Amino acid sequence: MPNIRRTYLSQILLYMLLLAGVIATVLPFLYMISTSLKGTVYAFEIPPRLIPYHPTLKNFIAAWTSNRFDRYFINSLSVTVVTTALVVGLGSMMAFASSFRKLVIKPS
Amino acid sequence: MTLNTIASRGQTRPRRFYNLFPLRLTRKGRNSLAAYAFLLPGMAFILMWLAYPMVNALRISLYDWQLMPGATSPFLGLGNYRAALADPIFWSSLANTTRYALVTVAGQLFFGLVVALALEGVRHARVAMRVLYYLPVVTSWVVVSLLFEYLFNSNPAGLVNQALVNTFHLVDKAIPWLNEPRTAFIALYALGIWKGVGWTMVIFLAALQALPEECFAAAAIDGADGKHMLIYITLPLLAPTIALVFVMLTIGAFQTYIPIALITGGGPIHRTDVMLSYMYSQAFTDLKFGYSAALSFILAGIVFAISQAQLRLTRREAHSLP
After folding, report:
1. Which domain holds residue B116?
2. pTM of the predicted model, to two decimals?
3. What confidence tens digit (pLDDT) does each residue in A8-20 have?
4. Cα distance between residue B57 and residue A13, in whole Å
5. Is residue B98, in this structure, part of any structural domain at all?
6. What is the value of ipTM here, to two decimals?
7. CB spacing of B35 vs A104 below 8 angstroms
8. Domain that holds residue A98
9. Which residues of B244-259 are buried (b: 16+ CB within 10 A; e: fewer)?
């Protein structure tokens, strides 16, 4: 991209614009993290706080020790491993085959 | 013994490593045989998991399909398709899908382009901001759907309600976002745009970095300022990329399902259903598999027609540019 003349004013405006976007993008995540550290009674507190009043890790402990968390994790893991292996393996084989010139119809 | 040593002795030509079939074939024949051998496993998968189910779905769409083994499925011909055209919920879900596509595609294109241009214009913290903007893209749809359901909670303590009522004083009392189709769709649009901006931004950034430097140098000599460069050089050069992103986003928007299913479930009484969620409820709640299969082919036809039209229009536009 070009050397648009960088004036201080335009730089400040650009940073403000980008910062507003970053806040809008990240705020839901921050609020999710903050809620994960709140006790159940504080999940719908008024007004909502970004910094939990009585931060607690018990949600994490509950999730980690919930029924069959290990099972769910292994299920996700096995789906990920098998699909990735198949997609990369079969995909690269087919790509290699389509590199044989004039033998395979290539997508235009 | 390596291929090189064989070749250097001049005894035989080095063997191609893909000569897998010691048959009496010409080299061309051997090559094509090898090529098909490499294609075979992938093609088998595609036939089994794509072609066969599609053909089967087309067949199902012609019947009043019964799940019960042994039960006879009455042949309806195009009856399911005619039923869809007479179904008011089909039309309302199609309208919902179309509105969702219009709003979210426009929003993602606009904000993605603005963020990409702004990022190209600054010097510091570019990588960090790129990562932060990309965060929603790599987060699971299920996670962000539940997150937005929580943010747009009808309860006065929902974050959006709190911000509107108590922080910015824009409305007097909490809005029951997810109870009304109109406001529920505002939440769904917000989610769709918020999750997609990072992706469009990355595509536009890649395109911006590949733009030819000479055009801008020439324009600078001719006395163009930043605004003129943007309007007369950057945007026209980006036109093919914008067209591509436009088509991809539209196809994606017509296939939205997870946020609707998780946030409103299509309710109240199908009023927030989109094509896919209506299709799903017809098949797996009402067990009308034939009808649902017909809906899927109608949707496929619509998506195909729209993407063809977009490609044609945008291609002409890209050619007509200087």
Report:
1. 79-320
2. 0.81
3. 888 888 899 999 9
4. 54
5. yes
6. 0.78
7. yes
8. 69-108
9. ebbbbbbbbbbebeeb
